[in-house]
Specification:
Layout (H helix, E strand, L loop, with lengths): L1 E7 L5 H14 L4 E7 L7 H13 L7 E12 L2 H14 L3 E6 L7 H6 L2 E4 L7 H20 L6
Parallel strand pairs: 1-2, 1-4, 3-4, 3-5
């Protein structure tokens, strides 16, 4: 299985970039993992969000073994154990690729949300796209340690 985090805009804060890279390195022990950035749209509002959605979806494709997860405030909030269960299910189902989409300041487009197989929330608070990627990468790593019975998850 290959995991991809696709996010609008680049990570500007060194601490966040370092943290994401650290967790991606840890995840790489369990599966292939990559992170990709798409250029944010100029301006803001619905038109910008839709333009960013087109960019996010450009690399998703339509392969049957791809699962798409949208991170959105209206999504389902999962426990760490539920994250592990979700990843275990994908592995059992033979998912070849899982794409996590992180929107920009305006969130995800209606097209991106419609394409998602699952909508998840990282909690009720608003997070910067940088912090959201740190939390996402950490939860993915934690899920793998739970599945392997490793001591990281206490």
């Amino acid at each position: 299985m290959r995991l991809e985090i696709v996010a609008v805009d680049r990570i500007r804060e060194n601490w966040a970039s370092d943290a994401v890279e650290e967790y991606l390195g840890r995840i790489a022990r369990y599966c292939k993992v990559a992170r990709r950035e798409v250029r944010p749209a100029r301006g803001n509002g619905a038109r910008a969000v839709e333009e960013e959605g087109v960019r996010l979806l450009a690399g998703v494709g339509s392969r049957a073994d791809t699962r798409v997860v949208a991170l959105t405030p209206g999504g389902e909030a999962l426990s760490s154990e539920a994250w592990a269960g979700m990843i275990s299910t994908w592995q059992r189902e033979g998912a070849g690729r899982v794409v996590f989409m992180v929107g920009g300041a305006g969130g995800l487009s209606t097209a991106a949300l419609a394409r998602a197989d699952r909508k998840l929330s990282l909690g009720p608070q608003t997070l910067s796209h940088e912090l959201a990627q740190v939390v996402l990468a950490e939860q993915i790593y934690r899920a793998f340690t739970i599945l392997r019975g490793e001591p990281y998850h206490k």
